[in-house]
Amino acid sequence: MKIHSLEVYIVDLPTIRPHHLAMHTIVTQTIVLACMRSEDGIEGWGEVATIGGASYFEESPEVIKLTIEKYISPLLIGKNPINFDALSHTIGIHVKGNYFAKALVEATMIDLVAKYKNVPSYELFGGQCHTSLPVAWTLASGDTVRDIEEAKHCLETKRHNIFKLKIGKGDPKKNVAHVIKIKEAIGGAGSVRVDVNQAWDEATSLYCIEALEDGGVDLIEQPLMSWNNEGMSRLSSRFKVPIMADESLGTIQEAYQIAKNRAADVFALKVPKAGGLTATKKVAAIAEASGIPMYGGTMIESSLGTAICAQLYSTIPEMKFGTELFGPLLFKDNITVNQIEYENFEIIIPNGPGFGMVVDKEKVKHYSRETVSSIN
Ligand SMILES: [Mg+2]
Q1: Handedness of CA 196, 199, 204, 206 (dihedral sign)
Q2: What's this protein's family per the entry (predicted)?
Q3: Range of the domain at 55
């Protein structure tokens, strides 16, 4: 089998409500799709999502597309995708950084190879440890009453009982009060966690985390800037409530440094920030070797990107903190024929060849920024 072509599409999908984060408010989520075709016509599809252009991570959707088309694709045409790990190594020699672009390309190779073998992609990673995983919902409407209503509806419908609040924007004291009101309203029916998205300094973190810990919050995600591992280490040793690394944890080298310096109590895995599924599995191994529990993060992918993450997370034996693979529920529309299923507070891991999702090419054409003439 040989790779014949690799095409990249930037797709803007509307969300059901504004989603407020410290660095950006999402009303239209931008995902990058790639389609790799073999010479005998098998297609492998991949997706990575970005948040607010380049405001969350360095790579914008436009850069991901350009890097793949100009620098990665020429390395792959004519090569056998079955050796996807060797091809990823070759890409790494010629392209530094650009982890989202690399993750997208690796996903297309894995989807293609798994479809060729007619197996789910998770079989290429040791098979499933889980057929479903707990899934958190992010309360990010920006309004306390609306967030409480949303949380209660999630509990009643058995959709989610883990709630994450994005609290990096605005007055830290008001944000902490907002979180504690929500925790009081939910009580023991659900877990409340916060994501600060690097917005606090260490002094702010000290009094805010103390109040959040007293208020019954279960997890504090990335309070400090991504470079501040020393500060994260101090916070982790000071508080009982676990501190989780997200933006500070990308590559396997960063995972090693955080584990060695105990600069977090929990790892938030994300396939694109590690540079792909294989690298994410290695980050998980570092966590396992260090006794650090894991959480399956999201970049707010649509159904395909969610399936990619879900399949990989399903191969990791211990996912103590569950996942936040709620992405498809935030979109008004989707780019696959079949949809991700949620049941009894969990995401059902997709089955079927590849990542188990069938791309709806008409939807890709509809939402793509470019004229997609080559999709048929
Ligand atoms: Mg986060």
Answers
A1: positive
A2: Belongs to the mandelate racemase/muconate lactonizing enzyme family.
A3: 3-118+358-367
Distance 1 CA to ligand 1 centre (A): 39
> CA-based angle 287:291:292, to the nearest 5?
50
111 and 148, same domain (yes or no): no
Same domain, 110 and 219: no
Per the domain annotation, does 353 fall within a domain?
A: no
- Domain assignment present for 48: yes
Cβ-proximal residues to 113 (8 Å cutoff; 6+ apart), any chain: 44, 81, 82, 84, 124
Average pLDDT over residues 135-156: 92
pLDDT, position 25: 82
Say if residue 270 is in the same domain as residue 242: yes
C-alpha distances in Å from residue 275, one per residue of 42, 99, 270, 290:
24, 4, 9, 21
Same domain, 19 and 35: yes
Bridging pattern class, strands 162-166 and 137-139: parallel
Distance separating alpha carbons of residues 106 and 268, to the nearest angstrom: 20
Give pLDDT, residue 142: 76
Distance CA 123, CA 110 (A): 11
**Cα of 267 from ligand 1 centre, angstroms:** 11
DSSP track, 19-36: EE-SS-EEEEEEEEEEEE
Within this chain, do residues 25 and 170 fall inside the same structural domain, yes or no?
A: no
Q: Is residue 374, in this structure, part of any structural domain at all? A: no
pTM: predicted TM-score of the whole model, two decimal places? 0.95
List the catalytic residue out of 65, 166, 169, 273. Answer: 166
Is residue 174 part of the annotated active site? The answer reads: no
